[in-house]
Write a structure and sequence with these properties.
alpha/beta; TIM Barrel; 8 strands; 40% helix; binds 3-methyl-2-oxobutanoic acid
Length: 265
């Protein structure tokens, strides 16, 4: 596989073709996912839950993210590496710039931030400094306490309209990618129509340009009842490598997500 860049991901959006993304937190899984043809590796702050055993992503620090970004980048994957900005790290312009510098210098090629229109000024600053950004909308896990749980977002007209407006203003500010988590399919359609950058979905229906899953969910090893949008790709496969290839293929040929993994309304 040739090294994936932002231009490849933009080309998918323009051509209407799909790309795959999975979370990775270490060199071994980064190498396996890259070898399986997965286009993007997300060093997600979900590591706070799946690696560190916390009940939420809130305890994750910039130092944690830097360590795991360095581990992933050390595999020299062909996949495009995205690192999460952890909880409150972008609360001030100074800390936001410092954290992005740290993560990019550890090997991230893009920074993902959770939030909404309040991010526009920061996204402009990052663009001016050469930091590509992905804005995570919908069910943003760092806001779990405000949401009162991990719930589908944008189900009512007002919050749906606000999310469409946020997507438009974040793209205008320079966001290079959007990520929609747990939103109804119809809202994804509206956001796709209103924007031109690649859109990645998780529980956001079949329409986005890319799909992402947490590695541990994809392999069926997350304890407890899986979320609706999760599919265990290890089932029926004889190895982790085969499961990753099956996921990549299912995303690219449009078989994943099926309606059973989506929120119709
Ligand atoms: O942290 C993470 O793994 C994420 C994905 C669930 C999109 O943000």
């Amino acid at each position: 596989m040739t090294a994936i860049s932002l231009s490849h991901l933009r080309a998918h959006r323009d051509a209407g073709t799909k790309f795959s993304m999975v979370t990775a937190y270490d060199a071994c899984f980064a190498e396996a996912a890259s070898a399986a043809g997965i286009d993007c590796l997300l060093v997600g702050d979900s590591l706070g839950m799946v690696l560190q055993g916390h009940a939420s992503t809130l305890p994750v620090t910039v130092q944690d993210m830097a360590y795991h970004t360095r581990c992933v980048a050390s595999a020299k994957p062909d996949s495009f590496v995205i690192a999460d900005m952890p909880f409150m790290a972008a609360a001030t312009l100074d800390t936001a710039m410092q954290a992005a510098q740290t993560l990019m210098q550890q090997g991230a090629q893009m920074i993902k931030l959770e939030g909404s229109t309040h991010l526009t000024e920061l996204i402009r600053r990052y663009r001016d400094q050469g930091v590509p950004t992905c804005c995570h909308l919908g069910l943003t896990p760092q806001f779990v306490n405000q949401f009162g749980g991990y719930k589908v977002q944008g189900r009512d007209q007002r919050t749906a309209d606000q999310m469409v407006e946020a997507a438009i203003s974040l793209e205008a500010a320079g966001a290079d990618m959007l990520l929609l988590e747990c939103v109804p399919n119809a809202l994804t359609t509206r956001i796709m129509k209103a924007t031109t950058v690649p859109v990645v979905g998780i529980g956001a229906g079949p329409e986005p340009t890319g799909q992402v899953l947490v590695m541990h969910d994809l392999l069926g090893i997350t304890p407890g009842k899986p979320a609706r949008f999760v599919k265990n790709f290890l089932e029926g496969q004889s190895s982790i490598q085969a499961a990753l290839r099956a996921y990549d293929q299912a995303v690219k040929d449009g078989h994943f997500p099926a309606q059973a993994h989506c929120f119709a309304e």
